[in-house]
């Protein structure tokens, strides 16, 4: 029964849905939910998915493969070139130092020097899957930490190629690395001499680059011409699977091949099409991958050697964390960004599975060593979300630069204090405009590098999470007149609005929202000053279009103001309509329906015609009556 | 040939048949610049330096606008308020506009009969235009009688045709050096005898 594919699929899906929803409810990352689901349905707890964990892991690696393909797509070669210093610098430092120290450590622990080298290489790599997923989920991609983490992970992802090319060299002097039943999924070229293997690897990389330009893009063009969307999905999957197959064939990591393929295709016109096509597959497969990692935690191996494993695990994490911290220091990251980097990349990553099994296939590692290291890898990955959580909840709130710089302020700002939350694209525009009028807002932001920069510019800036009441207090909310929420995160705005409403009702709260749905939520919480970022710019664009079509600019300017006023009024009315609750699953359809209603109303109202002042036609009509 | 700058201000140009015809008639004349203020400055943000440059490059300035509440539409007033700067247009060093010719071209809904001491509006158009006249005088410009198209609410097609042809003629006369002594200053420019020759 448990062997049935359908049953397994049901277990995976049900486990994921249940655990991820619970994790999300507690405000945890979805990765924790997946890992937990894996442990639960795995062979050692409920046993639903038996011992097939290995196969599933193999299949689920497509999640990682697709992720790397998508990462590759995002990196256009010129951006890559721009980031080369951080990639090479931070990545090189982290990988180099980790390999060196881990090597010495494992030698000291009595490992054979070849084993120690392989293990230290595996240990140096962090989990792109876990780290990137968490970073994206938290919206930290643009921060200093996000960029650093991305650079290091990228470097690791690239250096794996060389590691995989290097490991066979270690095996060479040992027993001839052939004919093991285990190696059947590995390459056909394994029997060849090392030099040929290396050449085969290089050739296949060249092949991907060339094929990308001269085979894949023309093929995609042909497929796109048919206009059948499924075919594009099929083509996208074919590319990823094809590259993976080729890479497995020559015995290097499919994920890397996919990454390379992504980079090659990042300049093509299909970049965004591929991205949006593969995104849902990627997320589900990554989820599967995390579950497989959870399921592959071999509790028997742990039970046999609990102290060795826990000890090694702890040592490895501490070692990696230490080097990451130092790397952060060398590159002058602020403390909070540095800590986030330290804790989010301290695990051993999925490439360790690849490297270790590869080395095992070449008889460099023994079965026992391999089992143990795999468990450590899985455990370290599972621990990551918990460690970052501790960092986030316990450590970060207690550090960060809090003291303000005393500087003479304009008397307006002094007597009528303004607090500005979030100094991103939106907030900075607001802040700069206020400042150019001599109004200095007190700024709250969660990126300490930005905070530092703003300090140098002479702004009064507080670092930290603006949903914390104590931070708002130290920013002077008690004396503030206005607080502007310029963050695009609804959660933050809602939290602040709650605090303001309960404790500081005298403060005028003005909130940026992304769209009308977020606006509805805030309006229904009783806020009237909601500013949709999508409103003004879209009206400006529409105005310019009509102007190009020959409408008069002054009329359009007036009409724009009419439309804006009308839309704001209708927003407030519509927010009260009780139709946007959770029952509306088919939100897209609802949205379209609503848009249609708006458009019909606009047409009926005749936005252009309702101002009759100095209108000679209407004057004439009135005159005729007499 | 003198250069003419028509400062045109109409918030609802798309609804004004008379002004459309007038502008259409003169827009292709040589050395005539039509400067549509409501199109250039829909947000009332008048570019002073650009306006000054335009003024300096022309010899005859025409304030062309409908008669709103016995005056010009607000953007024209805004233009006067901020472009005619102290010590540039007037004041001890304000000589930029000295010697230029200035006049109003106006359209009114009401007929000529309504604009007199016996009519609904009690005063003549020329009397209502005193602020413009004095503005021009203060800037050292020679103020000419206005060109008017009145009673636009009930204007017949043939009268409109006549009006626009006269407008074109007037502008050509101005360009060829029509002098203030060539006409009776109490008259409207569209009534001067030169137009019939």
Task: Note down, in words, how this protein is organized.
The complex is a heterodimer of chains A (626) and B (197). Chain A has 626 residues and is mostly helical. Chain A has two domains: 5-38 and 55-171 and 193-398, Na+/H+ antiporter like fold (Up-down Bundle), CATH 1.20.1530; 418-607, 3-Layer(aba) Sandwich (Rossmann fold). Chain A is built from 27 helices and six strands. In chain A, strand 5, helix 23 (516-524) and strand 6 (530-532) form a beta-alpha-beta unit. In chain A, helix 6 runs antiparallel to helix 16 (350-361). Chain B is α/β, with parallel strands linked by helices and 197 residues long. Chain B has a single domain (4-195), classed as Flavodoxin domain (Rossmann fold, 3-Layer(aba) Sandwich). Helix content of chain B is 33%, strand content 15%. In chain B, strand 3, helix 4 (74-83) and strand 4 form a beta-alpha-beta unit. The longest helix of chain B has 19 residues, at 157-175. The A-B interface holds A 552-557, 614-617, 619-620, 623 and B 11-17, 38-43, 66, 68, 75, 109, 152-154. Chain A: Keywords: Antiport, Cell membrane, Ion transport, Membrane, Potassium, Potassium transport, Transmembrane, Transmembrane helix, Transport. Chain A: Residues 415-539 form the RCK N-terminal domain. Chain A: Belongs to the monovalent cation:proton antiporter 2 (CPA2) transporter (TC 2.A.37) family. Chain A: This is Glutathione-regulated potassium-efflux system protein. Chain A: Its main location: membrane.
């Amino acid at each position: 029964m448990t062997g049935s594919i359908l049953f397994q699929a049901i277990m995976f899906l049900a486990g994921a849905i249940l655990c991820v929803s619970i994790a999300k409810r507690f405000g945890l990352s979805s990765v924790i939910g997946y890992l937990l689901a894996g442990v639960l349905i795995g062979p050692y707890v409920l046993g639903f998915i038996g011992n097939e964990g290995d196969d599933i892991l193999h299949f689920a690696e497509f999640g990682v493969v697709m992720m790397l393909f998508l990462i590759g797509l995002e990196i256009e070669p010129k951006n890559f070139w721009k980031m080369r210093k951080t990639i090479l610098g931070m990545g090189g430092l982290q990988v180099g130092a980790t390999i060196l120290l881990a090597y010495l450590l494992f030698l000291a622990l009595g490992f054979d020097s070849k084993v120690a080298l392989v293990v230290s290489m595996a240990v140096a790599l962090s989990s792109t899957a876990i780290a990137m997923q968490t970073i994206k989920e938290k919206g930290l991609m643009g921060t200093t930490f996000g960029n650093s983490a991305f650079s290091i992970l990228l470097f690791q992802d690239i250096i794996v190629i060389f590691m995989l090319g290097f490991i066979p060299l270690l095996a060479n002097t040992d027993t001839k690395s052939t004919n093991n039943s285990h190696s059947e999924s590995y390459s056909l070229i394994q029997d060849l001499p090392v030099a040929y293997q290396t050449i085969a690897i290089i050739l296949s990389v060249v092949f991907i680059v060339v094929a990308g330009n001269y085979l894949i893009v023309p093929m995609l063009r042909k497929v796109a011409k048919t206009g059948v969307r499924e075919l594009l999905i099929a083509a996208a999957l074919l590319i990823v699977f094809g590259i993976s197959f080729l890479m497995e064939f020559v015995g290097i990591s499919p994920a890397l091949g996919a990454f390379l393929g992504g980079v090659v295709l990042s300049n093509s016109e299909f970049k965004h099409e591929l991205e949006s096509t593969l995104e849902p597959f990627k997320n589900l497969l990554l989820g599967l991958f995390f579950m497989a990692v959870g399921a592959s935690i071999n509790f028997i191996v742990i039970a046999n050697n609990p102290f060795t494993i826990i000890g090694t695990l702890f040592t490895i994490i501490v070692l990696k964390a230490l080097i990451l911290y130092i790397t952060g220091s060398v590159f002058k990251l602020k403390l909070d960004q540095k800590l986030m980097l330290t804790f989010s990349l301290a695990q051993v990553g999925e490439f360790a599975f690849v490297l270790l099994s590869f080395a095992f296939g070449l008889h460099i590692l023994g079965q026992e060593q391999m089992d143990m290291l795999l468990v450590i890898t899985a455990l370290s990955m599972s621990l990551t979300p918990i460690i970052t959580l501790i960092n986030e909840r316990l450590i970060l709130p207690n550090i960060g630069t809090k003291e303000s710089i005393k500087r003479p302020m304009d008397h307006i700002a002094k007597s009528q204090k303004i607090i500005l939350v979030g100094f991103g694209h939106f907030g900075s525009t607001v802040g700069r405009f206020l400042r150019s009028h001599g109004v200095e807002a007190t700024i709250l932001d969660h990126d300490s590098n930005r905070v530092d920069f703003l300090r140098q510019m002479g702004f009064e800036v507080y670092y930290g999470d603006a949903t914390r009441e104590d931070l708002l207090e130290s920013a002077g909310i008690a004396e503030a007149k206005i607080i502007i929420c310029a963050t695009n995160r609804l959660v933050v705005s809602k939290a602040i609005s709650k605090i303001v409403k309960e404790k500081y009702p005298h403060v005028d709260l003005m909130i940026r929202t992304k769209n009308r749905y977020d606006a509805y939520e805030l309006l229904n919480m009783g806020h009237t000053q909601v500013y949709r970022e999508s409103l003004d710019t879209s009206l400006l664009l529409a105005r310019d279009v009509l102007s190009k079509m020959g409408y008069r600019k002054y009329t359009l300017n007036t009409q724009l103001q009419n439309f804006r006023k009308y839309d704001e009024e209708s927003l407030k009315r519509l927010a009260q309509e009780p139709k946007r609750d959770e029952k509306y699953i088919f939100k897209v359809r609802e949205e379209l329906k609503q848009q249609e209603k708006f458009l019909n109303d606009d047409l009926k109202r005749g936005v252009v015609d309702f101002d009759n002042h100095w209108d000679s036609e209407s004057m004439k009509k009135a005159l005729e009556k007499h | 040939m003198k250069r003419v700058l028509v400062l045109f201000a109409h918030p609802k140009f798309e609804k004004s048949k008379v002004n459309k015809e007038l502008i259409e008639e003169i827009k292709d004349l040589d050395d005539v610049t039509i400067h549509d203020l409501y199109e250039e400055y829909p947000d009332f943000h008048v570019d002073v330096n650009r306006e000054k440059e335009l003024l300096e490059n022309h010899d005859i300035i025409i304030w062309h606008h409908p008669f709103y509440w016995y005056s010009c539409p607000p953007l024209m007033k805004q233009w006067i308020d901020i472009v005619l700067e102290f010590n540039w247009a007037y004041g001890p060093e304000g000589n930029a506009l000295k010697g230029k010719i200035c006049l109003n071209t106006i359209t009114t809904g009401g007929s000529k009969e309504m604009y007199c001491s016996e009519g609904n509006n009690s005063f003549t158009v020329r009397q209502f235009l005193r602020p413009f006249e004095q503005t021009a005088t203060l800037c050292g410009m020679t103020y000419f009688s206005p060109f008017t198209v009145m009673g636009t609410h009930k204007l017949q097609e043939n009268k409109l045709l006549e009006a626009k042809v006269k407008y074109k003629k007037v502008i050509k006369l101005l360009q060829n050096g029509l002098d203030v002594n060539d006409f009776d200053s109490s008259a409207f420019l569209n009534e001067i005898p030169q137009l019939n020759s």
